Amino acid sequence: RKCHLNTCPVGVATQDPVLRKRFKGTPEHVINFFFYVAEEVRALLAEMGYTHLDQIIGDTELLEKRALIQHWKARGLDFGKMFFKPDAPHEAVHWTERQKHPIDDVLDRKLIELAKPALEARQPVSIELPIRNVDRSTGAMLSGEVAKRFRHKGLREDTISVKLNGTAGQSFGAFLARGVSFELVGAANDYVGKGLSGGRIVIRPPENTKIVAAESIIVGNTVLYGATEGEAYFCGVAGERFAVRNSGVAAVVEGVGDHGCEYMTGGIVVVIGQTGRNFAAGMSGGVAYVLDE
Q1: Which of 204, 203, 200 is nearest to 180 (CA)?
Q2: In angstroms, rounded to a whole number, what is the distance separating the alpha carbons of residues 189 and 219?
Q3: From first to last of its 293 residues, what are the pLDDT tens digits of the chain?
Q4: Edge-to-edge strands of the sheet including 229-234?
């Protein structure tokens, strides 16, 4: 196994341009594979007299148990209750209600509206709003608008300055673009700054809190996963898998859990505190500083 050494002989788990040339796969191969899967599913359905997957959901009569019940690995297993088909012909056997996706009401819609001077005329704007843990992927749609107009070049630093108060939901600041700065007074869940693309994220506790930042979790797991560019500052401790696959972000944090900086290929990470197990495993680039006291 060489996945953690940056020497993958087939060019998959490596950043070495010479080795990457050995990877022969193409997107078309993946597309063709799924076309074949779909074609085989269609053929199997046709053999049974069906035309759509929805028609066989819950139809346990189509299942046949393999004769391995006496095998020592399967001894005692009884799937009778799992495969029992209730006599309820007028009840749906799977979820049929339309899912609710309130995308029109997400916090980013408000951010985009308030950031119009920056998006339309590059004028600096300052925004301050509350945030709740049901507000997920905050900043992703806003960054999409920035990228749509200004591509990867983005905006000048701090053109869109956003201050939020509260506890953010998952993926706070995901894919944050150049020129967008987020300051969160509170805490955030998992995946903060994943795919960070040039923006800046600052998360700190309220000034009047009695929390000792160096001893308290302020962001969850898998922070800055796959981040490529930008800055992140966390006044507190992060969970596990901090900055995994970071390739260009500069980050400061007061402690991390297990697997920090795993597979990191670029950027700078400063840990002013303890790290968990497996720190920097498979790290092939960038710099990590850890305060050892």
Answers
A1: 200
A2: 5
A3: 778 788 898 988 888 899 999 998 888 999 999 999 999 999 999 999 999 998 888 888 888 776 666 677 777 777 778 888 878 777 777 777 777 778 888 999 999 999 999 999 999 999 999 999 999 999 999 999 999 999 999 999 999 999 999 999 999 999 999 999 999 999 999 999 999 999 999 999 999 999 899 999 999 999 999 999 999 999 999 999 999 999 999 999 999 999 999 999 999 999 999 999 999 999 999 999 999 77
A4: 125-131, 160-168, 180-188, 197-204, 229-234, 247-253, 266-271, 287-290
**Residue at token pair 């500083």:** 289
92 shares a domain with 176: no
Buried b (16+ CB within 10 A) or exposed e, 141-168: bbbebbbeebeeebbeeebbbbebebbb
The parent domain of residue 76 ranges over: 1-99
Give the Cα separation of 286 and 268 in Å (integer): 6
Same domain, yes or no, for 107 and 82?
no
Two tokens, residue 73: 């690995």
Give the CATH number for residue 177.
2.160.20.60
